[in-house]
């Protein structure tokens, strides 16, 4: 078995042990040292050398050189996300115009990690170190060597470069999150590696089952000559475990189950501040709504309790947060202050917050959930797994011994909580996933090699919807030109179809604006204590037709104000979100122009706009139940009970027929982004689909 190393580098003193279960486990020698060298390095360099991953630098480079796939398991905070790409660059993997690609499941993590690495390398972000997320490219093709990007963006790059020939190494970070894009990417990278055995993969994770990932990537090259070549790496994956620098964390459980985790979290924060020594507090909640409610509750309590509690600095953390607000979270805490960060599970592994000593774990997160029989996909507040609970507790032991306060009982944790979460692939609508695979030329979707197979029912449902939208033909191939054009637009296929249909209805100008609004998180900003003013501001833009037309009114007002941030503030609108809408619209305009579609305006003919929306969203049609006292609708296809979300302008208006863009589930299924329609438009838009549904009641 030939062993080689980068010229001029010292081979690490290691023990490589062949594992019976496949893969090679690296055991570091006891002489490895993480001490700082005495050559007057800047403080950033000293910080880098203090990270736990530093003592594994030579080992990582050795394994990447020797093996096609290296699986790195290491706790959050070990430095793997920021340091491994730099080690690869220093070892020459970006020489000759090649790229080192590093993927993250979340956009916020991409931006944060890229920004930190640029700072450490001492370059301006967007030059040698850059990032690409949907609708935002901060790279320089001739200059960028380390490129951070979301899993989804890398999949889209494959449409132009199926073998990712620009990349010498691809690091898939936070693989344990098992997002739908991560699982797709892993399956695609495995296919690429068969054709490009020289491509190195690093699968990095905090908790991943290294053995199962190792057996997934244990590829036997098709050509037996490839396997014996000295120029190619071993197809057998290597596994490297990187120790963290965690301190002990004392776990506290509630004695009785709590009925309101939000109030319990607020009470726990106040108790910690009263009884515990200094140290920041990290609270895990489920989403933006929860977090904003908790911020409001905490601020009210602080005002009520008095001076001692004014030392608390309350900061929200979720993916739609503007950059300026994020900076406060990562900045060191001022003397005499205590930060309270209220976060989604993004702080579980994707981001490291220094200074946290106390963690409050609600025991819940917001998870995507899909039922292919009822065809309802929704965001559901659901219990977390033991793996997530351990990750959350670990955030408290970063700077010194910490404490984790779990808002559930020890008995529940030991006997009822699931060991691991369910991969998103097995609980999601697969429409976007199927069209991307089809666009990449993968026709046998049911036979695709997944790390975790999706349900055949969900796959068949996705094929049915894409066929009904005219995106796939009877042979399940992309239609020309619609299917290929939809695949090229980086949006949900239903929104993409809406954009293409707008051309025939003469309202592409309006629909591009609506599609841009649907691509950002809420543009409205709810402010505590001014509900009356907020409702009045909302009414200024409200359109009788529904939310989509309301977006057009907001966009018009924003333009007429000269894109003023002051105007946004007065109207309770998120200035950064509206700037993003303008930017996304410009990019979508370039894409549709490349299809030869000219921009047309319908001059306030909102019937044309609504018909274009239906062309993409007719599967989401609902009708109001007769004699319904509480605004209950039923979906036409599967008779599921749904309700208009309180944030919609149609809340309590309750038109007889509507289509919605998405569902969110709490105590009920709520429709978001709703528009009123005429039922006859459905049979106009999709006679085949609705006739098919009527004639086959057994399929309901």
Automatic annotation (TrEMBL):
Domain Helicase C-terminal: from-to ranges: 265-441
Enzyme class, spelled out: hydrolase
Domain Helicase ATP-binding: 61-226
Domain of life: Eukaryota
Alphabetical list of InterPro entries matching this protein: AAA_22, DEAD-box_helicase_OB_fold, DNA/RNA_helicase_DEAH_CS, HA2_WH, Helicase-assoc_dom, Helicase_ATP-bd, Helicase_C-like, P-loop_NTPase
One Pfam family this sequence matches: Helicase_C
Key word ATP-binding present: yes
Annotated keywords: ATP-binding, Helicase, Hydrolase, Nucleotide-binding
Keyword set includes ATP-binding: yes
GO MF term set: ATP binding; ATP hydrolysis activity; RNA binding; RNA helicase activity
Entry-linked SMART domains: DEXDc, HA2, HELICc
EC number(s) given by UniProt: 3.6.4.13
Catalytic reaction annotation: ATP + H2O = ADP + phosphate + H(+)
Protein name, UniProt field: RNA helicase
């Amino acid at each position: 078995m030939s062993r080689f190393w980068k010229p001029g580098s010292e081979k690490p003193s290691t023990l490589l042990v062949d594992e019976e279960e496949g893969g090679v486990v690296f055991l570091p020698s006891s002489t490895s040292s993480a001490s700082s060298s005495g050559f007057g390095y800047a403080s950033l360099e000293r910080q880098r050398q203090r990270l736990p991953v530093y003592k594994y630098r030579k080992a990582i480079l050795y394994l990447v050189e020797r093996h096609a796939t290296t699986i790195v398991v290491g706790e959050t905070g070990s430095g793997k996300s920021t340091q491994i790409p730099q080690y690869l660059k220093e070892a020459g993997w970006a020489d000759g115009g090649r790229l080192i690609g590093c993927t993250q499941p979340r956009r916020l993590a991409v931006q944060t990690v890229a920004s930190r690495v640029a700072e450490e390398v001492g370059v301006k972000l967007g030059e040698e170190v850059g990032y690409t997320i949907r609708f935002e490219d901060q790279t320089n093709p001739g200059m960028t060597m380390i490129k951070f990007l979301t899993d989804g963006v890398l999949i889209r790059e494959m449409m132009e470069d199926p073998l990712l020939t620009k990349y010498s190494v691809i690091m898939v970070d936070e693989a344990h999150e098992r997002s739908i894009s991560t699982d797709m990417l892993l399956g695609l990278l495995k296919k690429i590696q068969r054709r490009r055995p020289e491509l190195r993969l690093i699968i990095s994770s905090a908790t991943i089952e290294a053995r199962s990932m190792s057996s997934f990537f244990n590829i036997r090259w098709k050509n037996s000559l490839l396997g014996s070549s000295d120029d190619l790496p071993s197809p057998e994956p290597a596994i490297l475990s990187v120790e963290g620098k965690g301190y002990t964390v004392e776990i506290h459980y509630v004695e009785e189950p709590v009925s309101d985790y939000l109030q319990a979290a607020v009470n726990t924060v106040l108790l910690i501040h009263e009884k515990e020594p200094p140290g920041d507090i990290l609270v895990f909640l489920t989403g933006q709504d929860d977090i904003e409610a908790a911020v409001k509750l905490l601020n009210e309590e602080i005002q009520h309790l008095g001076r001692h509690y004014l030392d608390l600095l309350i900061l929200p953390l979720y993916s739609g947060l503007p950059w300026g607000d994020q900076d406060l979270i990562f900045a060191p805490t001022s003397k005499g202050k205590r930060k309270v960060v209220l976060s989604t599970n993004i702080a579980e592994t994707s981001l490291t917050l220094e200074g946290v000593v106390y963690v409050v774990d609600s025991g819940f997160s917001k998870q995507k959930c899909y039922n292919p029989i009822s065809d309802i996909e929704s965001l559901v507040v659901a219990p977390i797994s033991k793996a997530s609970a351990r990750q959350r507790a670990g955030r408290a032991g970063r700077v010194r011994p910490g404490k984790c306060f779990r808002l559930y009982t020890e008995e529940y944790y030991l006997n009822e909580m699931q060991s691991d979460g369910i991969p998103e692939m097995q609980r999601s609508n697969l429409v976007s996933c199927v069209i991307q695979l089809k666009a990449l030329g993968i026709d046998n979707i049911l036979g695709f090699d997944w790390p975790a197979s999706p349900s055949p029912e969900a796959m068949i449902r996705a094929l049915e919807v894409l066929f009904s939208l005219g995106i796939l033909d009877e042979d399940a191939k992309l239609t020309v030109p619609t299917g290929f054009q939809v695949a090229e637009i980086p949006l949900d296929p239903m929104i993409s179809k809406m954009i293409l249909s707008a051309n025939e209805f003469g309202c592409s100008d309006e629909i591009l604006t609506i599609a841009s609004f649907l691509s950002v998180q809420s543009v409205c900003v709810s402010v505590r204590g001014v509900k009356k003013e907020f409702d009045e501001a909302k009414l200024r833009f409200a359109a009788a037709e529904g939310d989509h037309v309301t977006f057009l009114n907001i966009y018009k007002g924003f333009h007429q104000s000269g894109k003023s941030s002051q105007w946004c503030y007065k109207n309770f609108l998120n200035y950064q979100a509206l700037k993003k809408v303008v930017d996304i619209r410009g990019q979508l305009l370039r894409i549709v122009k490349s299809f030869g579609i000219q921009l047309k305006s319908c001059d306030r003919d909102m019937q044309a706009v609504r018909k274009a929306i239906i062309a993409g969203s007719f599967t989401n049609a609902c009708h109001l139940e007769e004699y319904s006292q509480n605004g209950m609708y039923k979906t036409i296809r599967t008779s599921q009970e749904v309700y208009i979300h309180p944030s919609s302008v149609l809340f309590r208006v309750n038109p007889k027929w509507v289509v919605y863009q998405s569902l969110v589930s709490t105590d009920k299924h709520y429709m978001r982004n709703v528009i009123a329609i005429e039922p006859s438009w459905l049979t106009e838009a999709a006679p085949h689909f609705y006739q098919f549904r009527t004639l086959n009641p057994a399929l309901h």
